[in-house]
Amino acid sequence: MNQDYIKPDNWSIIEEGFDAESVKSSESLFSIGNGAMGQRANFEETYTGETFQGSYIAGIYYPDKTKVGWWKNGYPEYFAKVLNAPNWIGINIEINGESLDLAKCKSVANFRRELNMKEGIYYRSFEATLQNGTQISAKITRFLSLDIDELGVINFEITPLNGDAKITYKPYVDAGVQNEDANWEEKFWEPLEVSNTGNEAFVSARTFKTHFTATTFMQNTILLESNNLNCAPSNVVKTSNRIEFTYEVAVAKGQTSAIQKLGGYTVSLNHQDTNAAAKKVIAKGLEIGYSKLAEDQKFAWAKIWEMSDITIDGDVKAQQGIRFNIFQLNQTYLGKDSRLNIGPKGFTGEKYGGSTYWDTEAYCIPFYMATKDQQVARNLLTYRYNQLDKAIENAAKLGFTNGAALYPMVTMNGEECHNEWEITFEEIHRNGAIAFAIFNYYRYTGDYSYIPEKGLEVLIAIARFWQQRATYSTYRNQYVILGVTGPNEYENNVNNNFYTNYLAKWCIDYAMAQIQKVETEYASDYARIMSKVNLDAAEIAHWKAVADNMYFPYSEELGVYLQQDGFLDKELVKVHDLDRSQRPINQKWSWDRILRSPYIKQADTLQGFYFFEDHFSKEQLEKHFDFYEPFTVHESSLSPCVHSIQAALLDKMEMAYTFYLRTSRLDLDDYNKEVEEGCHITSMAGTWMSIVEGFGGMRVKNNALHFEPKIPKEWEGYSFKINFRNQILKVVVNHKETSFSLDGSQNIKVYVKGKEILVEPNSLVKV
To answer: Residue 416's closest CA among 433, 435, 396, 445?
Structure first.
């Protein structure tokens, strides 16, 4: 049974009625972010019920010492944690001497929260009767400014309903926070300084070990009936890591009082003096004023939506799902800073350490290439180039030599910080995703300059890794790759995972082709790179021998590539013959049982068919899809999107639609029963792909856009926009036709079902 308390709505995430059971889930679903910081939807006021407190700052992390039973050579020293940052949203409230706490009120009525995705603003309202009999109504608005990304804004209004009331606001900033998932229950922040002037307060703290400094700040304005009371705090309480102000207001029955709180973070990543920077942010916020800040927020989000929105007609849940996914992707990463990347939970939780995974290259880059300008995707590629030395270091720790690079499974700064051996040492296919992203970027943008400037060095280091990781088998007279884990993490330490072997061969071939192209067309870059990497013809010949003679496990009888050598030795019971009570198997079965089962967590062999679709015929794809999908339990958030795209290509529209709903509403409907830990941000990019590449059938071939539009029978129509080489193409699909319009200065040729169509600027072409 999935959760279903979120009301269907085209533009908003809405919860009506207060239910303590769903508080932690809602804290994830109503999270807000602006690319530089984010926070779970914790209540501002005291809440003594079950809650998961979380505020996060992009790029700030802590190396939490690895917790493993016994150490092996090559284990990462630490697991990088995204830090629960000091809390600036807190406002304790007392009404006639009693604390406002929804867990303890006599009654809570008309509770409603809304995350308005069109505006990027989070609203909450309720009526409450306190134990002392006072009845109040409250309205709270909160947003994190897109324009001033170090600033957050809260407006908390209270109206007494059954008599006059003395309302006491106690806003605070608190650096005494801990992570839910700390390995050793240790504190990550060291307080440095607490200061205040007038209505402003500042708490500076530094992370242990990594020594990031953050100043968390607040500024408070008290209003009555919308008039600024210009009052100073009547009391200030300071400790080494916390500061709290007290404001008291006498409010007549039916009058509305409010506290407007500005807050946020200034960090040493961006400022030498974080305190001085915080004062400037407050001054700027006050100068603009609350109403204009809210207006600017709506305008900034309108600009994002203008390019990235996908509309779906006739299916509200599908529409809400895709917008929620697009909204969270934009809250997490806006592409302004190449030091940052996209964590699998974004700013919605701590699981997975908030670090960078191969998800970025495999799933996220296509979304950012098509909905922003190409510089954003280039920044994501540059992030990996900047960490190449660390990737070479990571490989050296495992015994690789000569500048071979193994990019980490999980990282914050380029160092491996994932501490499960079967993934850290074995899930090496991640290296291939990084090379594939370079190819994908050039294929889509036509911007080759990245490869001679930076990308070729990465491709060479990755090719060196694959050549060394392959083993020559005298038994097979071919090269094999032993002891790996493919994308299907329900098989560890297998030999010759098809996807890994195929990717390894492709990476080497691609690197050799780019070396030739750069030598011919970019002579000075070629000379610079070759003197740096010491590559000679003999080494390239060795690469070629490995690539040309790579082994792929194959069943002649079934006519399919095998996921790995031993796949057919398993007891091949399909998922639909598995008792429902046994699902999800990752929560019901021992790991030993899972590893011996045929069950597949996510696309694995089919991930290869997704990346290299043009290397295989449609008949081959169908054969492999029909063989592997029935064994797939889809217990990874990254699974439904790839299967949706392939099902659409194969005209299995019922399946494509079911998988689309599953990926788009994975968190809203809490399919995996874990949304309270945070949302699945990187799989949300896969949701975007399942519409654009799945139903829209968009591909880039020979420098041109190709479409094979299809539409689920549940929809009346859908539309999306693509920024292709600085030309913005809008595609609208319904059951009768597909229409194209162009916002650009030059004509563009597109292909629909193989037929060439010319689209001219500011005109509509219907097919």
So the answer is: 396
State the pLDDT at residue 67: 65
**For residues 92 and 98, what is the distance between their CA atoms, to the nearest angstrom?**
11
Residue whose tokens read 């964590």: 343
Residue 459 is predicted with a pLDDT of 98
| Residue 241 reports pLDDT greater than 70 | yes
488/563 Cα distance (integer angstroms): 9
Which runs of consecutive H residues, i.e. helices, occur in 139-178? none
Residues 6+ apart with CB under 8 A from 591: none
The token pair at 537 is 């013809």
Question: Phi and psi at residue 580, in whole multiples of 5°?
Answer: -55, -35
Report the alpha-carbon distance of residue 403 to residue 392 in Å, rounded. 6
Average pLDDT of span 613-639: 96
The span from the CA of 348 to the CA of 86, in Å, is 15
Task: Supply the mean pLDDT for the chain.
Answer: 94
Task: Give CA–CA dist 467/670, Å, rounded.
Answer: 42
Q: Which residue do the tokens 């694959």 mark?
A: 466
Tell me, what amino acid is at 329?
L
Q: Is 114 a catalytic residue?
A: no
pLDDT given for residue 1 in this prediction: 39
CA distances, 406 to each of 427, 547, 611 (Å): 10, 18, 20
Supply 446's token pair.
């036509």
Instruction: List residues bridging with 14 in a β-sheet.
Output: 7, 114
CA nearest neighbour of 355 among 405, 408, 425, 394: 408
Give the count of beta carbons closer than 10 Å to the beta carbon of residue 321.
25
Stretch (H or E) spanning 438: helix 430-445
H or E segment and range at residue 737: none
Nearest-angstrom CA–CA distance, 34 and 217:
17
Q: Regarding predicted confidence, which is higher, 66 or 619?
A: 619
Q: For 287-322, what is each residue's pLDDT tens digit?
A: 999 999 999 999 999 999 999 999 999 999 999 999
- In three-state secondary structure terms, 167 is strand
pLDDT band at 71 (very low <50, low <70, confident <90, very high): low
- Residue 372 to residue 722: CA distance in whole angstroms: 9
Measured distance CA(15)–CA(20) in Å, rounded: 12
**Strand residues in 653-747 grouped as ranges (E):** 699-701, 704-707, 717-724, 727-734, 738-743
User: Each residue of 725-744: pLDDT tens digit?
Assistant: 999 999 999 999 999 999 98
Model confidence pLDDT, tens digit, residues 654-675: 999 999 999 999 999 988 788 9
Q: Residue 90 burial (CB < 10 Å; 0-12/13-18/19+)?
A: buried
Burial class (CB in 10 A: 0-12, 13-18, 19+), 735: exposed
> Quick one: average pLDDT of 549-566?
98
pLDDT tens across 315-359, in order? 999 999 999 999 999 999 998 888 888 888 889 988 766 688 888
Strand order in the sheet with 37-39: 32-33, 37-39, 55-57
Comparing CA positions, the residue from 170, 157, 120, 151 lying closest to residue 287 is: 151
> Exposure string (b/e) for 9-47, b if CB count within 10 Å is 16 or more?
bebbbbbeebeeebbbbbbbbbbbbbbbbbbbbbbbbbb
Residue 764 pLDDT exceeds 70:
yes
Tens digit of each residue's pLDDT (9 = 90 or more) over 150-194:
999 999 999 999 999 999 999 999 998 876 666 556 788 999 999
Rounded distance between C-alpha atoms, residue 721 and residue 309, angstroms: 7
Helix axes 639-649, 653-664, angle to 10 degrees: 160
Buried/exposed code over 702-717 (b: 16+ C-beta within 10 A; e: otherwise): eeebebbbbbbeebeb
* Active-site residue (options: 489, 629, 635, 693): 489
**Rg over CA atoms, the chain:** 27
**Paired tokens of 733:** 């699909």
In this predicted structure, the answer to whether residue 127 has a pLDDT above a threshold of 70 is yes
